[in-house]
Amino acid sequence: MKRYDVDALILEHRRVAEDHYWMRLDSDAIGQNARPGQFIHLQVSSGTVPLLRRPLTVYRRSSGSFEVLYQVLGQGTRLLSNTKPGETLRVLGPLGNHFRVLEHIRTALVVGGGAGIASLMLLVEELIRREIPVIVLLGAQRASRLVAIEDLETLGVDMRVATDDGSRGHQGFVTELAEEVLRDGLSNRVVYGCGPTPMMQALSDITQRYGVSTQLALESYMGCALGVCLGCMVRIRRNGIIQHMRVCTEGPIFDAEEIVW
User: Fold this and answer.
1) Which of 9, 92, 97, 133 is most buried, taking the most CB atoms under 10 A from its CB?
2) pTM higher than the cut 0.90
3) The domain 220-261: what is its CATH number?
4) Residue 206: exposed, middle, or buried by beta-carbon count in 10 A (0-12, 13-18, 19+)?
């Protein structure tokens, strides 16, 4: 798949939750070509600090623009949060592989932990377009950190929420909601997920117990995002052999049963 290295104009940028921001950028090339689960590599500063670009998933897209939804975690994303509409950022993308929507799916369970829902929104839209019933589970530490609620409500999906402190929805982990859904025994299920590594490992354990096909979008620090620096390696078991693969090129989407946690 072709990738583009472009100057993208910031069209909109705003805070949407505690430490979480949404941005829309002007790029027809990326907006036309990004697929569910793919990401961009974004230069957050015109100087040398930070030197490396930051990987951000493509949240949504249109014919002339694309959106990102991100959490402020360090120096790079903090600098990004201070940028304004009218500024221009250098963007490389779309990058990585993408979620697979299998023909036999009758019900899709989409599980997003925190800002992990950013990797899943294009997928949700694709599932709806294909008229596949979808249940979306959102998790966060507290209600003030929940994101994408309004966008999912607009899509009209079956959405359920979990917060660690019980300030909204189920009190506990989003993986507990996932197990409740899987326990109901829906046929031909496929699970998609993204979030903090402990959440995805727990989700993988649950779905493997129920024998449900699961695709996960892994998160990793990426230096080059082109597979050269080898800074984002993960262990994958295929055909009984453990291999080292790059999240930026062979991923970020992997089958849960193949990941060596």
Assistant:
1) 92
2) yes
3) 2.10.240
4) buried
